[in-house]
TrEMBL record:
Residues 68-228 form the SGNH hydrolase-type esterase domain. InterPro entries: Ester_Hydrolysis_Enzymes, SGNH_hydro, SGNH_hydro_sf. SUPFAM superfamilies: SGNH hydrolase (SSF52266). GO terms for molecular function: phosphatidylcholine lysophospholipase activity. It comes from the Bacteria. Keywords: Hydrolase, Membrane, Transmembrane, Transmembrane helix. This is SGNH/GDSL hydrolase family protein. Pfam families: Lipase_GDSL_2.
């Protein structure tokens, strides 16, 4: 009811008995009107704020919230101190030049591929506001999958990032250590298709006048000096986009039809096991010849497992055919998602893991364990 209607009701409805009562009711009515008006403008302002682009936020000197989906370089591994990570340096630059505060959320994991990034994105609670998304993959992906499979997963990641956060700009980062040009071209092509900005760090490092040893901790992960180049490049890219009035990334028709609706699911459907036992959430064995088999439906298959200092090798068979040999060693214990295969036919499949008893070269323990939590299966729409 509007305020005039409320006053009319109070007067004509017989509630106004004297001047004192009328004054009281009038004050209450005006107060309610003021509160309603404030809430209306607050809601309207908040709604429009959520739709503002990162470039509009910078122009207004307003806070920016960003999301990083990536691997160890995405999380700034290699920096001597936390303030020398690329995103920390970028935050400092934005504060110094524009008075803009940046706040980040990080879906990152050392050794991760685009598959793990996609899984984390699908299972992460939706954030209230995100104006900027950085996607940092490629260096690990080239170890486990083909260029085509990487393209499907990478495109799915961009599509689902944009669907989850429609107002967000997307900046893809081609890592300085990526030597597989076909993977770098996939990143560039997919980024361009969705009008996302791509920061290719390879030529930046090559033209820096410094050696890879001077810019990295281990020939792969940048150190503080290397991440300074990342931050400078990203800041300049954002500035260029802001000044040119760039349109933020768009959700376009997919390049790969398989990437349009790729959904990932956990699967614990064990059909047989020999020599395995259940411990702390994982089917576990270190006995050579032991095996565990699952049944699944899906075009894509990965596995959720525990990697650690005592991790060993396991042979993988899909539908009875040898598919891959997996190394589950890692310098510390961490649950990981490892890509296995894509492009499987529609219908039911089996996957069997056979422990070989072989230790990785870095395994200094007396055992070679394999610990599996579940499968990760995906279905795409052609």
């Amino acid at each position: 009811m509007c305020s005039s209607g409320l006053v009319d009701l109070l007067i004509n409805g017989g509630y106004i008995l004297n001047t004192k009562n009328f004054s009281t009711f009038l004050i209450v009515t005006l107060t309610l009107l003021a509160v309603s008006t404030s809430l209306f403008f607050l809601t309207t302002s908040y709604g429009s704020e959520k739709n503002e682009s990162v470039y509009q936020k910078i122009n207004k000197e307003d806070r920016i919230t960003y999301l990083v989906i990536g691997d160890s370089i995405g999380r700034g591994s290699g920096a001597e101190t936390p303030d020398k990570r690329w995103f920390s340096l970028l935050e400092t630059k934005m504060k110094q030049h524009h008075g803009v505060h940046m706040k980040g959320t990080y879906l990152v994991q050392s050794g991760a591929t685009a598959l793990e990034g996609l899984y984390k994105l699908q299972n992460e609670k939706t954030l209230d506001q995100v104006q900027l998304i950085f996607i940092v993959f490629g260096e690990n992906d080239r170890k486990y999958m083909t260029e085509r499979d990487f393209g499907i997963l990478y495109e799915s990641l961009i599509r689902q990032s944009k669907a989850k956060y429609p107002a967000a700009e997307i900046i893809t980062i081609t890592e300085s250590s990526l030597t597989f040009n076909n993977f770098a071209e996939k990143i560039k092509t997919i980024s361009s298709h969705y009008k996302a900005s791509n920061a290719d760090m390879r030529p930046v490092f090559e033209n820096s006048g410094k050696t890879i040893k001077e810019l990295t901790r281990d020939q792969i992960h940048p150190n503080g000096a290397g991440y300074s180049l990342y931050a400078d490049t990203l800041y300049q890219l954002i500035e260029k986009n802001r000044k040119s009035g760039k349109t933020i990334a768009q959700l376009e028709t997919p390049i790969n039809p398989e990437s349009e609706d790729l959904l990932l699911h956990q699967n614990r459907n064990i059909t047989s096991e020999k020599g395995f036992y259940y411990k702390n959430g994982f089917q576990t064995s270190n006995k050579a010849g032991s095996s565990v088999e699952y049944q699944f439906n899906g075009n894509l298959i990965g596995v959720k497992l525990l990697r650690g200092p005592d991790g060993g090798f396991v042979d993988v068979y899909i539908d009875g055919k040898f598919t891959a040999k997996m190394n589950t060693w890692w310098p510390f214990y961490r649950e990981r998602i490892q890509y296995i295969k894509n492009g499987l036919a529609e219908g039911s499949h089996t996957i069997r893991f056979e422990v070989t008893g072989e230790k990785a070269a870095s395994n200094q323990t007396d055992s070679a364990y394999f610990r599996v939590s579940s499968l990760l299966t995906g279905n795409f729409v052609n």
